Amino acid sequence: MEKFHQKPITFVGEVSINVLDLNKAILFYQEIIGLQVLKKTDRKAVLTTDGKTPLLTLEQPADVIPKEGRTTGLYHFALLLPTRADLSIFLRHLLQTKYPFGAADHEVSEALYITDPDGNGIEVYSDRPSTDWRWAGGEVEMGTDPLDGNDLLRESDGEWSKLPAGTLMGHIHLHVADLRKTEEFYMQGLGFAVVNRYGGALFTSTGGYHHHIGLNTWNGVGAPAPKENSVGLNWYTLVYADEEARNKVTEQLKGIGAVVTEEAGFFAVTDPSGNEIHLVV
């Protein structure tokens, strides 16, 4: 596991999504994805892989409605496994459960794609060594090629039980309404760098990662934000190195006209497409 998800690099820490039925969702995330419940109330469950760090929060609003089509919001959140062997074991598990999935080789990583029962997108992936990534003109080369599943399966014959404790929230990929406004917000406001542009999408990161945040207009330029009680993204966290780094970012955000509010333990801001971000240290 390389050092793209620890301070001083800014990275995605936790994601919160709405689901239609909390208990059904918990079952899916335990049995198919391999997360564990850290804490649970009637309408909320916090999931983890190491028994202490929140990774994914599931919420069931009282008046929840199904996922709306053609809106901004979550495209997928991506769970980064520590090793390729872990991804091999997870692939075998998906084949054994017969749960439908997609797959791709992105050159920088190998990825499996799953949709939860409510339509929330999930990627489970492992990175290739960063020394093998190809950069040109400040951009990293990424593609979408067929995954060599047989080769991946040969990597390990280990038995699946759950996601390994070292699993991280590797990145998040969002639907947005306008790439120009989005680029200004994430670059000049949040302090990310564009590391790849591809067909209506921006891939952004800090510290030379292939991407911590993907942003696309594939649901249509000008797509509306979903209703608050809709299945989909509630918020995600960005982890900053310290108070000083976060304060610098909040000033940058205010400088481009974004509204930053102080909550208990974090600052909150909403991107131009309505995606809520919690800035934490």
UniProtKB/TrEMBL annotation:
InterPro entries recorded: Glyas_Bleomycin-R_OHBP_Dase, Glyas_Fos-R_dOase_dom, Glyoxalase_1_CS, VOC_core
Signal sequence range: none
Domain VOC: 11-127, 168-281
Keywords: Metal-binding
Gene3D superfamilies: 2,3-Dihydroxybiphenyl 1,2-Dioxygenase, domain 1
SUPFAM superfamilies xref list: Glyoxalase/Bleomycin resistance protein/Dihydroxybiphenyl dioxygenase
This protein's record includes keyword Metal-binding: yes
GO MF term list: lactoylglutathione lyase activity; metal ion binding
PROSITE patterns recorded: GLYOXALASE_I_1, VOC
Name the UniProt record assigns to this protein: VOC family protein
